[in-house]
From TrEMBL:
Residues 10-255 form the Xylose isomerase-like TIM barrel domain. The keyword Isomerase applies. It comes from the Bacteria. The lineage of its organism: Bacteria, Bacillati, Bacillota, Bacilli, Bacillales. This is Xylose isomerase-like TIM barrel. PANTHER family: HYDROXYPYRUVATE ISOMERASE. SUPFAM superfamilies: Xylose isomerase-like (SSF51658). Pfam families: AP_endonuc_2. GO terms for molecular function: isomerase activity. Gene3D superfamilies: Divalent-metal-dependent TIM barrel enzymes (3.20.20.150). Keywords: Isomerase. It comes from Oceanobacillus oncorhynchi.
Amino acid sequence: MPIEGPYGCKLAAELGLEGIQLELGSYEKNFPLSKKSVQEAYLEAAEKYNISYPSIAVRITDDYSITDSKESKSRKIIMEAVEKGIDTAKAMNIPVVMIPTFEKSEIKTDSDFQKVVEVFKTICDYGLAKGITIAAENALSVAETQQLFERVGRPNLQLYFDTQNYYLNKGYETPKMIKDLIPLFCNQLHVKDGKDKDLSGALLGEGDTDFYASIKELKKHHYAGWYMIENYYNQKPLSTLHDDPVEILKKDVGILKEAIKNH
């Protein structure tokens, strides 16, 4: 969002959006969303502007490795963050906590994979006790994703799909993955686009991820959940399209709504 914080609800409502994915915040700032006063501010804004919060993202895994040893500082920080994220979701009546495994937490080896399985078992058990779904976001292949779910073996583990990550990170054809993975989807996914390996760097449908084919495939399989836009309107190259990032976001909202309606 071009405007951070609870006021973002006003902007979202004015743009015809219905929800916002929240973020727990960083370890260095002591996980702002976990604080009661911050939660109350967001809940007040949501009620005022009729905005939903479908999920909370715990993105600390970008900066600390989930694949470090159990005794490491990194793993302890991640587990603290995830527990606070789940507690926050419970307190705010938000059904899903998303855990990505990119950057510092990218799964590169069999050992990494096994550690991620172990961590997600613990995370899912903690979430299950509080009625929270844990949504894994990654760039694994179809077979690897299915193996992850089989080995974790928890009923509250679901997949947070993304229309660019698979192509961006591995060169996979995103539309072809939807048929096999859609049974694992949580009731929401990310839509974004980019050219030449730019993360979230192009208007929807103007990148090289075959965005419209993904929308067509989603509709073919009767997907009716949340489409959460995740383009970076305040960063280059997208920010060069207009001096005001709100105008760029407004254009993408129109593109998404038209795509869902007509493809």
